[in-house]
Specification:
This protein is α/β, with parallel strands linked by helices and about 250 residues long. It contains 7 helices and 14 strands. It has one domain: Spore Coat Polysaccharide Biosynthesis Protein SpsA, Chain A (Alpha-Beta Complex). About 25% of the residues lie in helices and about 30% in strands. Helix 3 crosses helix 6.
Amino acid sequence: MHEINPSGSVAVCKAMIFAAGLGSRLKPWTDHHPKALALVNGKSLLQRNIEYLQHFGIRDVIVNVHHFADQIVQAISFNKGWGSSVTISDETDEVLETGGGLLKAAGYFSGADFFVVMNADILTQMDLSEMIRQHLTKQPLATLAVSERETSRYFLFDESDVLCGWRNIKTGEEKIARNAGVLRQKAFSGIHVIDTALFQLIKRKGKFSMVDVYLDLAGDHIIRSYDHTGAALIDVGKPENITKAESLFP
């Protein structure tokens, strides 16, 4: 089992950044560029998240690519990974969504106990080392970063912060994987700490979401939340949020 260094950084850990999405919400930028290279105060989302991971001692990163994949590959090469060792997971033939993309990259995490996953279009000041510390202490199959904020889709947790289901408040759709007396809805922040044992449990193939994976497994396995309410987080998936992000992330 890995430990946290006294400095707060992770002793040994790898990460994956999901950067293959089409970024349809970020048009017109994504008509000619990948979402991950959208700029916030002169730095791309990808660079900012690679540097965010570095702050917690994580310098081995795999990035999946699909939409304008060549631009991401060129940016990583030109900037020498912004100081990190960056591997490409090529999904140019077909975007595999978050679950399929992670499964395709499974070999990269061989030999590791756990790893971090995050979306390229999320910027945050959340204390990742504290999230990892909680994961290592409680040892669930996965820990999901969540916060108290308004959204249309929520994960549902019991009073012990164990994942029980999912709800779409716009459509009324609800999926319950584990029975609980009280369900608390929390907004998922697109950051995961995952035990590598998860790979052996995934039964889906091809294109699928990590949300579906977690709901498949939540009935028989413990998946926990890490609530970072109060720490800055913004989804830079919409043009209007670029301006908001620039005020939070100089």
